[in-house]
């Protein structure tokens, strides 16, 4: 099996346009305060639209800046947008600094490294119009508080958060204000961001897919990279039926160029080598299924790179004229615009 240590070239054996499915859009903001971490800002805020970073601010720069060119267009409609975002960054620094100290007291902690984080935003289904909002707070990597929009109450997974839960539950005006923002204002901003970044966010980049086995006894890895958006699935199958035994699915990870990568491993150590060609690595992407199958060793060459270039061009041309709307957008916003407020813990 020494030859299996080399790249196994793949050939595209099937292209199937499937009915487009609804896309859920999201924009999330992560606010993070830390203590005891040397050479790192004590406060950082990051905004993400469909997992693409759109803004950044920290306690060293003290200015909120756009991370995508299209986000600069917001200023044309809202001239004071970035000044307001900077003011929010400065204000939240003070709030989070106070909160992390109170959390340390609640947990009877003094020194050491500690992290307080809030993830806040909404999701919008562009087909059904369904909206979901969320406000989640964590401390040292564990859930601390989160808002239940069904009951309009705060949930405290740990005893140390009960004091805050009770106080916030009693502030019905604040909860109603947040419900209104998460279910109405947030989706409105989400759609604005989607319109600003449509040409970038709605693009479709097909993956480069390859298979690698490091040694004859190691698992076989199916590796896809360079695809966008990140709403993709990849799995191993036999006769188009997904298999799970011996499969280890990795997370979708970002590349430096804004695209994504993922890996799915399979252990075929108990399968006779002559049966390996029955296994397919399947990549499914925004309504398009790309079936890849390993070839006989006589084809283990550079055929894949040349084949996929031709197939990419053909597929993109097909998509251009197809009525299948396979790339709808899903955004998330976590932002107070006209309803920004600072929330402190209370003893």
Automatic annotation (TrEMBL):
<dbReference type="GO" id="GO:0009897">
    <property type="term" value="C:external side of plasma membrane"/>
</dbReference>
<dbReference type="InterPro" id="IPR013783">
    <property type="entry name" value="Ig-like_fold"/>
</dbReference>
<dbReference type="InterPro" id="IPR007110">
    <property type="entry name" value="Ig-like_dom"/>
</dbReference>
<dbReference type="InterPro" id="IPR037055">
    <property type="entry name" value="MHC_I-like_Ag-recog_sf"/>
</dbReference>
<protein>
    <recommendedName>
        <fullName>Ig-like domain-containing protein</fullName>
    </recommendedName>
</protein>
<keyword id="KW-0325">Glycoprotein</keyword>
<dbReference type="InterPro" id="IPR011161">
    <property type="entry name" value="MHC_I-like_Ag-recog"/>
</dbReference>
<keyword id="KW-0732">Signal</keyword>
<dbReference type="GO" id="GO:0005615">
    <property type="term" value="C:extracellular space"/>
</dbReference>
<dbReference type="Pfam" id="PF00129">
    <property type="entry name" value="MHC_I"/>
</dbReference>
<dbReference type="InterPro" id="IPR036179">
    <property type="entry name" value="Ig-like_dom_sf"/>
</dbReference>
<feature type="signal peptide">
    <location>
        <begin position="1"/>
        <end position="22"/>
    </location>
</feature>
<dbReference type="InterPro" id="IPR003597">
    <property type="entry name" value="Ig_C1-set"/>
</dbReference>
<dbReference type="InterPro" id="IPR001039">
    <property type="entry name" value="MHC_I_a_a1/a2"/>
</dbReference>
<comment type="similarity">
    <text>Belongs to the MHC class I family.</text>
</comment>
<feature type="domain" description="Ig-like">
    <location>
        <begin position="207"/>
        <end position="281"/>
    </location>
</feature>
<dbReference type="InterPro" id="IPR050208">
    <property type="entry name" value="MHC_class-I_related"/>
</dbReference>
<dbReference type="GO" id="GO:0006955">
    <property type="term" value="P:immune response"/>
</dbReference>
<dbReference type="InterPro" id="IPR011162">
    <property type="entry name" value="MHC_I/II-like_Ag-recog"/>
</dbReference>
<dbReference type="Pfam" id="PF07654">
    <property type="entry name" value="C1-set"/>
</dbReference>
